[in-house]
Write a structure and sequence with these properties.
alpha/beta, 9 helices, globular, 35% helix, Spore Coat Polysaccharide Biosynthesis Protein SpsA, Chain A, 7-stranded mixed beta sheet
């Protein structure tokens, strides 16, 4: 079984344009995401899935600099882009990660990857359907067989744009499960989508450097609770927004 993390990335962003290539603590945001995903020892590889738009040529160049493979596909049909990337990577199990998560936790992903095959016949496992972890540590794991079926059968725009809704909105077709932690940390916002999020991420990296754990961030926020207020008011974009 070959397990590949596919990180979707593009330059375009309505609320924070060019965010994945912004410079942060000696690297790009995308560079930090790749590095933190690489900490998951159960992965066999990483592929960056970007678009065929000329505007995303810098993403292709960045993937080469980071030493990871890159697949280019549809800008709007991200499900098709993931299917192409999975096929090109020879993946049997796919991990979906987005490029706006520079606080991603590779150790958490390893826990999820250990749990995934332990549930016989599981098609999809995520830590996002029932939130327990901070937003920004999101990971979704699914089989190539499930992705192939979704790619063939999903027809609604939000199913194609957001890759995974067809799984969890059709429990009669797929066996899905949620990965929960021991503590509810869902109130924390550690993703990067707005200028306020950027202030928060910069503050965390300035305080901790580039190598830190989720426990380190929680300890920092306990010592400096004002940091969490930088983006606490930001509303997450709704599915399909």
């Amino acid at each position: 079984m070959k397990t590949i993390a596919i990180i979707q990335a593009r330059v375009g962003s309505t609320r924070l344009p060019g965010k994945v290539l912004k410079h942060l603590a000696g690297d790009t945001v995308l560079g930090h995401v790749v590095r933190r995903v690489r900490l998951a020892k159960r992965l066999d590889g990483i592929c960056i899935a970007t678009t065929e738009s000329p505007a995303d040529e810098p993403i292709v160049a960045e993937a080469a600099r980071l030493g990871v493979s890159c697949w280019r596909g549809s800008e709007q049909d991200v499900l098709d882009r993931y299917f192409g990337a999975a096929q090109a990577s020879g993946a049997n199990v796919i991990v979906r990660v987005t490029s706006d998560c520079p606080l991603f936790d590779g150790a958490l992903l390893d826990e999820m990857l250990a749990a995934f095959p332990a549930i016989r016949g599981l098609d999809y496992l995520s830590n996002v359907q029932v939130r327990c972890y901070p937003r920004g540590l999101d990971a979704e794991i699914f089989t190539l067989a499930a992705l192939t079926r979704a790619h063939r059968e999903a027809t609604r725009q939000h199913e194609r744009e957001h890759v995974t809704p067809y799984f969890y909105q059709h429990p009669e077709l797929f066996r899905v499960n949620t990965f929960l932690g021991t503590e509810d940390l869902s109130a924390h916002r550690w993703t990067l989508d707005t200028p306020e999020d950027w202030q928060f991420v910069e503050a965390v990296y300035a305080a901790l450097g580039a190598d830190f754990t989720t426990a380190d961030v929680l300890k920092l926020l306990k010592a400096k609770p004002e940091l969490a207020t930088l983006n606490a008011h930001v509303e997450q974009k709704k599915l399909g927004a």
